[in-house]
Amino acid sequence: MKHISQAKEIIKENWRDGFTVPTSMLYPFQWMWDSGFVALGTSTYDIKMSLTEIDKMFSGQWKNGMLPHILFHSEKENTYFPNFDFWESSVNEGAPNSPKSSGITQPAVFGFILQEILRAHWKNEEVRKFVKDIFPKVVNYHRFLYDYRDPHKEGLFYIYHPWESGRDNSPLWDESMNKIEIPDGAIPSYQRRDTALANTNERPTQNQYDRYVYLLELGKKYKYDGRQIAEESPFLIQDNMMNAILIKSNQSLIEIASELDLDASEIKEWQELSLSNYDDKFWNEELGLYVGYDLRHNKQLLHKEIGGLVPLFANIPSKPKAAKMNNYLQDLTKRGYYLCPSFDVDSPLFESQRYWRGPIWPQMNYMLYKGLKNYEYLETAEIVKDDLNTLIDKLGFYEYFESQKEIVKHLSKGYGGGNFSWTASSYLLLNRKTK
Ligand code: GLC
């Protein structure tokens, strides 16, 4: 609890004109799910900041409902690649001219975030009005996912770029990414910026980067129209985590609608369909976790990773399934890991320092904490919270963290960017008085 004021200070430093940047050098724009988590964090002490941030995010929504993963509010920043000129969102006629944006999305966090905010500020008329006004925009975003990204009408949407998942270079995507053949001349020459600003061994490799750029070009070729992209994209994945977050947010919207007297009939239909297919598609009994599904090659992605635990947050698993998920976490604790590594520590693909291939990510701990509490795994929930507190206390407000306790002993800082907004926000959320 001792770093509350420092956390607020970091968010203040990262505040720009109506929104926060994740961290000032590495990511100088507004990122979608970062923005949601930060708005939730600021709602614990400055509701105006929080509503302004959400509003700013929705100022970039496309006509077809898409919420872009990045809004480039400033066209002068040149420390990031791919920047707005590379994405060329104007190829889609429904993309706003300002702010410019990327052509992909990120996890659908705003439904549950609005509900948490509404609950905590129920008596504030301005908040109730805000939620009522923004509600149709959030619904429109969900409609986009069901309309454009669900070719077989299963209620489970796909992503065509790993960056959409929020877990950019997770080994989860390796097999599907490695199968991609890049035709000669299919990618223009480009200059990465991230490796000039962060440690190369904490960032994705060059090979991976070429494929990221290739998929981006594919999106552009089809004017970012999901229905056409689905026909050609060599990378077509139904991500269990993103679909769990959508289900969580659907549920929140349904509850908000009943509290504020709004129409939720369409959302209820989506929700029913999504829930009826979720377990069949994503549960893996042998691994004891949920996994993603490769829609291009018709098979599950057989890895244990952090996204496989997120269904707890959305109340999806039955009790026996949740028990298996809890055992997975308990086992890691007993073996000397802080919770929760982003990837299977026993896999040869695990890398403890590299981005989503092993390190602990703060906002994941927040969702896990809430999920474990849903199922009354209170002891594990406390570990998830305490571990993040310990890491922040010892290593600072970094983007992500080492999970092996033996190694952490000898470290003096975390990994990736410093003074990170959602790390600060997760800290505020996990340590607030009422939860
Ligand atoms: C990286 C992360 C992604 C995050 C972004 C900004 O791309 O993988 O989840 O939204 O950075 O912090």
Description:
There is one protein chain. By secondary structure, this protein is mainly alpha-helical. Among the domains are: 61-106 and 148-248 and 258-303, Glycosyltransferase; 318-416, no CATH class. Helices cover 47% and strands 4% of the residues. The chain has 17 helices and eight strands. It has helices spanning 4-14, 32-42, 47-58, 84-87, 110-120, 125-148, 174-178, 194-197, 206-221, 226-232, 240-260, 265-282, 319-334, 362-374, 378-395, 405-408, 421-430; strands at residues 30-31, 70-72, 100-101, 237-238, 283-284, 289-290, 293-294, 299-300. The chain has a three-stranded antiparallel β-sheet with strand order 1-2-3. β5 (283-284) and β6 form a beta hairpin. α1 (4-14) runs antiparallel to α17 (421-430), α2 (32-42) crosses α17 (421-430) and α14 (362-374) runs parallel beside α17. The longest helix is centred in the first third of the chain and has 24 residues, at 125-148. The chain is globular. The two termini are 14 Å apart. The site of alpha-D-glucopyranose has 7 residues, from α2.
Task: Present the secondary structure layout.
Blueprint: H1 4-14, E1 30-31, H2 32-42, H3 47-58, E2 70-72, H4 84-87, E3 100-101, H5 110-120, H6 125-148, H7 174-178, H8 194-197, H9 206-221, H10 226-232, E4 237-238, H11 240-260, H12 265-282, E5 283-284, E6 289-290, E7 293-294, E8 299-300, H13 319-334, H14 362-374, H15 378-395, H16 405-408, H17 421-430
Antiparallel strand pairs: 1-2, 2-3, 4-7, 5-6, 7-8
Helix pairs in contact: 1-17, 2-3, 2-5, 2-17, 3-6, 5-6, 5-11, 6-11, 11-12, 14-15, 14-17
